[in-house]
Amino acid sequence: MYKVKYVDLAIKDTILKEEILDSVNTILTSGQFILGEVVKRFEENIARYLGVRYAIGVNSGTDALSLCLRAFGIGDGDEVITTSNSFLATASAIIETNAKPVFVDISDDLNIDPELIEEKITTKTKAIMPVHLSGKPAKMNEILKVARKYNLKVIEDAAQSIGTEYFSKKTGSIGDVGCFSMHPLKTLNACGDAGLITTNDKELYLKLKQFRNLGLKNRNESDVWGYNSRLDAIQAAVLDIKLKYIDSWIEKRRQNAKFYIDNLKDTLIVPKEEEYEKHSFHTFVIQTENRDVFQKHLEENKVETKIHYPIPIHKQKAASYLNYTDNALPKTCLAAKRILSLPIYQDLTDVQLEYVIEKIQSFFPQPIEI
């Protein structure tokens, strides 16, 4: 039994639990289970929170990415520039549209390096898909500059970055579209799978609304082929309730992160927050040599950790046909050997945080050269 679990997904807060059960009961009584007024209300509320004109609830974060790619007409023979240091879904969405992911190496912040993007652009390139990994915003100003130069779409993979800010703008409001996951492991999480697309483009919004609902413009007519990627009303209700708490949850995660950073900055490579950012700390990723031995030490001391992600996407067997060499993306490959995610969720107690620090310091009794 862990003394400090990596995450605790059970809804234990009595007030929150009662709110959710009351809302679910209302939906069960109404019989309106898919889309409808409950979904519309959540879309309006989260659009307001994120500072965008439109939000479209869909079935998952992966669907959000796929639908946006298709809405931009990206498909056979096209290329999308992205990062290999991400969850598999980032590239999977590109593959699903029959386009090709083109991977760019990362900066020290573990996000895509904007300085390396331009050299990967070809006549087949149609979009750039930066990932705001761990809640750390990608360098969007530099990315947008390159995108405008070559007339490329920018699709923000904001799956892990709800509430993250970049020059006072929330992620998902900066590129042409933003794509969020509301999977149970996310900070704003459903009790099942759910996703969201954000945009300020009305024409794109209307197209995406059709795409998520089998292409239907009304109950009986369709002008385009679409997909079944509709947000369930129950999940929308859960998300709408949790949206009221999201800023306090993010603030608690930021406090937890500060405690870690203050106590570990001389021992490990810890996340850095720039003055123009507000990191939402979906995960707290440290880097160190002997990562595997260190992780085992924490495991033996009942501290659960995860690795996000031990195998870069370009190294996956499924991606072998893309023919990346062993020397490709060296910073991505180096990071994969050193990264480790510590527990950061908002319900951690001070006692638990201090216990994690104690067990880390027992492995590193003296500060090391970083």
Distance between the ends: 33 Å
User: What is the strand content?
Assistant: 5-15%
Main sheet: strands, sense, barrel? 7 strands, mixed
CATH fold-type name of the largest domain: Aspartate Aminotransferase, domain 2
Q: Compute the gyration radius: what is it?
A: 21 Å
Order of helices and strands: HHEHEHEEHEEEEEHHHEEHHEH
Count of discrete alpha- or pi-helical segments spanning 4 or more residues? 11
Strand order of the largest sheet: 1-9-8-5-4-2-3
Number of strands: 12
Shape verdict: globular
CATH superfamily of the largest domain: Type I PLP-dependent aspartate aminotransferase-like (Major domain)
Low-confidence stretches: none
What proportion of the residues is helical, as a percent range? 25-40%
CATH architectural type of the largest domain: 3-Layer(aba) Sandwich
| Overall number of structural domains | 2
For the record, the CATH class of the largest domain is Alpha Beta
Please, could you describe this protein's structure?
- With 370 residues, the chain is α/β, with parallel strands linked by helices.
- The protein has 2 domains: 14-243, 3-Layer(aba) Sandwich (Aspartate Aminotransferase, domain 2); 246-363, Aspartate Aminotransferase, domain 1 (Alpha-Beta Complex).
- 37% of the residues lie in helices and 13% in strands.
- The chain has 11 helices and 12 strands.
- The chain has helices spanning 14-30, 36-50, 61-71, 89-96, 140-150, 202-212, 233-243, 246-264, 291-300, 330-338, 350-363, and strands spanning 54-58, 79-83, 100-104, 125-128, 153-157, 165-166, 169-170, 177-181, 195-199, 277-278, 284-287, 339-342.
- It has a 7-stranded mixed beta sheet, sandwiched between helices. A 3-stranded antiparallel beta sheet has the order 7-6-10, with no helix packed on it.
- Helix 2 (36-50) packs parallel to helix 7 (233-243).
- The longest helix has 19 residues, at 246-264.
- The radius of gyration is 21 Å and the shape is globular.
- The model has no long low-confidence stretch (mean pLDDT 95).
